[in-house]
From TrEMBL:
Transmembrane regions: none
Acyl-CoA dehydrogenase/oxidase N-terminal domain ranges (all copies): 8-119
Co-factor(s): FAD
Domain Acyl-CoA oxidase/dehydrogenase middle: residue ranges: 123-223
Species of the source: Streptomyces gobitricini
Acyl-CoA dehydrogenase/oxidase C-terminal domain segment(s): 235-383
InterPro entries registered for this protein in UniProt: Acyl-CoA_DH_CS, Acyl-CoA_Oxase/DH_mid-dom, Acyl-CoA_Oxase/DH_mid-dom_sf, AcylCo_DH-like_C, AcylCo_DH/oxidase_C, AcylCoA_DH/ox_N, AcylCoA_DH/ox_N_sf, AcylCoA_DH/oxidase_NM_dom_sf
Family designation: Belongs to the acyl-CoA dehydrogenase family.
Keywords per UniProt: FAD, Flavoprotein, Oxidoreductase
Protein name, UniProt field: Acyl-CoA dehydrogenase family protein
Matching Pfam families: Acyl-CoA_dh_1, Acyl-CoA_dh_M, Acyl-CoA_dh_N
């Protein structure tokens, strides 16, 4: 389909990323998959390539752009190659918006140059055991010390993507108890140094998919967090979290569309090469009809994802629109990838084939960033229901 969302700069970036993936990722990806994470030094390579600095102001070592279109290219190219860039997506898509929105000039000078180079990898810690989508139910606390120099952090987090390699983690914690009128009251955000005493990484979680992305449990026992590492104002954390949900959900939507497009590509290549009953699988009418139907769904998802991207760059993407894009694109990807795996037959169930890994990677898209059920609730509310 004809697209207008990307220009020559984006396509040049695409060529660079595609070559980088072929040279630096594809040859060692099986090793990453077996290890359950990308190696730490890979993030330095992404830093050198400029991936982390695209949306960071020039004064802090970045390119100074204000767009998500280069991230969109990354989604498409990693999906096309059947690979993941470890936990780096959280570093850019989730952590950076908070730093740009909340960090003081002093904090930006401390944080952003190392962010751009990959010297400090960042993660975001919201979810706790037993809370899930109910962020307001968090139990982790951060109490201000008597001398007012630091907060004392206690609690635990789980499902923290990038948590194993992270050097700094944006931790959501209660600085005040919830009020009777508002359960969301009293949450604050902190840029916690993972080398702090009392900070520990628990299990590296064994996930169904996204195997090269390190996901961990975190624990905090009397961790001292300097007041200089409070992000934004105390007690306003929940409103800050809501501010970035649209971009997070767009990212999941666009990534899901890209996975669906990649699945069609993998399936088309496989059925063209695979011969049964004396002729390629692609020659059977059922194969043609299945791939045609999948392509039609991918075309629709691409249009939705691109429209959301343009709205996001224009700062006009509403929560309901982001929820709609996420719901639609993730459901399309679920259907398309399942059908494309079926066309692979038994080989589609083998992890050596990218379609099998894609099938597992895709499943979380309807869960994280807000489940499909939560997306429907948001959309329904916007309809006045």
């Amino acid at each position: 389909m004809r697209r207008t969302v990307f220009d020559e700069d984006h396509e040049a970036f695409r060529e660079t990323i595609r070559a980088f993936i072929e040279a630096e990722v594809v040859p060692v990806y099986d090793e990453w998959f077996a290890a359950g994470q990308a190696p730490r030094d890979f993030y330095y390579k992404l830093g050198e390539l400029g991936v982390f600095g695209i949306n960071v102001p020039e004064e802090f070592g970045g390119a100074g752009l204000d767009t998500h279109k280069f991230e969109a290219v990354l989604y498409e190219e990693t999906a096309r190659a059947g690979v993941q860039f470890g936990g780096s997506g959280v570093h850019v898509l989730l952590a950076l918006p908070y730093l740009k929105m909340l960090a003081t000039d002093e904090q930006k000078k401390r944080y952003l140059p190392k962010f751009v180079s990959g010297e400090e990898m960042w993660a975001l810690a919201m979810t706790e055991p037993g809370t899930g989508s109910d962020v307001a139910g968090m139990k982790t606390t951060a109490k201000l010390s008597e001398d007012g120099t630091h907060y004392v952090l206690n609690g635990a987090k789980t499902f923290i993507t990038g948590g194993v390699h992270a050097d700094r983690v944006i931790v959501c914690a209660r600085t005040s108890a919830p009020s009777a009128e508002d359960r969301r009251f009293g949450i604050s955000l902190f840029a916690v140094d993972t080398k702090s005493e009392g900070y520990s990484i628990g299990r590296k979680l064994d996930k169904l998919g996204l195997r090269t992305s390190d996901t961990a449990e975190l624990a905090f026992v009397d961790v001292k967090v300097p007041v200089e590492d409070l992000l934004g104002e105390e007690g306003k954390g929940f409103s800050y979290l809501g501010h970035n949900l649209a971009s997070e959900r767009w990212g999941i939507a666009f990534g899901a569309y890209a996975q669906a497009a990649a699945a069609v590509r993998f399936a088309q290549q496989y059925v063209t090469d695979r011969t049964v009953f004396g002729k390629p699988v692609a020659h059977f009418q059922n194969t043609k009809f299945e791939l045609a139907a999948c392509q039609a769904e991918v075309d629709a998802a691409q249009a939705v994802a691109d429209r959301a991207l343009e709205a996001l760059d224009a700062d006009e993407l509403t929560p309901a629109e982001a929820a709609s894009a996420k719901l639609f694109c993730t459901e399309v990807a679920h259907r398309v990838i399942d059908r494309c795996l079926q066309l692979h037959g038994g080989y589609g169930y083998m992890n050596e084939y990218p379609i099998a890994r894609l099938y597992a990677d895709n499943r979380v898209n309807r869960i994280y960033g807000g489940t499909s059920e939560i997306m429907k609730t948001i959309i329904a509310k916007s309809m006045g229901l």
